[in-house]
Amino acid sequence: MDAEAIRKLLERVQAGRLGPDKALEKLRHMPYEDMGFAKVDHHRAIRNMVPEVIYAEGKTPEEVVSIAKAIYKNSRRLLITRATKDIHKKLRIKGAKFHERSGIIEAGGAKKGKGSVLVVSAGTSDLPVAEEAALTAAFLGSTVDSVHDAGVAGIHRIMSSRKLLESANAVVVVAGMEGALPSVVGGLVDKPIIGVPTSVGYGTSLGGLTALFAMLNSCVPGIAVMNIDNGFGAGCLAHRINTLSLR
């Protein structure tokens, strides 16, 4: 569907000959932009609330920049995960901000957040993944608060954040080592809990597998678990839950 076809579709809506829901259905599967090495899905957000986001690892800086410019030109917003200073330097998009700890580059995100998402991290070493989750949810349009360094080695620290936990529509809990914190938080509140295991820990943490297994085997019912170090996925899920709670 080209620009003229979209214009005619919108004119039909304006004239009352086509309902908004029917028009939206026609727009859901619009063509992608074929760049040869990538097929950029400009209309993904119409289908599932989350626009196409660039995962930078495994791509050359030039590929990331080319895809980023195509996305930003079309939508005036951009999110890149696992990026580097070099990519940010070559990007040259006005207002694009690089968050070094998490490796996120963002531009044109939501200006005002809605609802409430809380991101809790067990230790300072978990902050890269926690920041990825928080920045993702905020970019998509959620109001995000964060609680850091609240792991089970000092369990009293999480208790001081009880009000934040109880007011959130979704809680992302990021933890490495033994991965126990999501169970603790899940036992305190009736909110949706999204556990994110990190690869932080000594030998038998097995690169995050121990934390992953602990979260999957939690005795607290109803905890969702992301893949190891997947703060981006947690941020997306938290935003969707938060959005649904506002309808």
Question: Keyphrases for this structure?
Answer:
Rossmann fold; 2 domains; 5-stranded parallel sheet; alpha/beta; globular; 4-stranded mixed sheet; 247 residues
Give a quick precis of the structure.
By secondary structure, the chain is α/β, with parallel strands linked by helices. It has helices at residues 3-14, 20-27, 44-48, 61-75, 85-91, 127-140, 156-159, 162-167, 181-186, 209-216, 231-245; strands at 33-34, 39-40, 54-55, 78-81, 97-99, 104-107, 114-121, 142-147, 170-175, 193-197, 224-225. The protein has 2 domains: 15-107, no CATH class; 114-245, 3-Layer(aba) Sandwich (Rossmann fold), CATH 3.40.50.
Could you characterize the architecture of this molecule?
Strands 8-7-9-10-11 form a five-stranded parallel beta sheet. The protein has a four-stranded mixed beta sheet with strand order 3-4-6-5. Strands 1-2 form a two-stranded antiparallel ribbon. 39% of the residues are buried. The protein has two domains: 15-107, no CATH class; 114-245, Rossmann fold (3-Layer(aba) Sandwich). Helix 9 links the parallel strand 9 (170-175) and strand 10 (193-197). Helix 4 packs across helix 5. The protein has helices at residues 3-14, 20-27, 44-48, 61-75, 85-91, 127-140, 156-159, 162-167, 181-186, 209-216, 231-245, and strands spanning 33-34, 39-40, 54-55, 78-81, 97-99, 104-107, 114-121, 142-147, 170-175, 193-197, 224-225. It has 247 residues and is α/β, with parallel strands linked by helices.
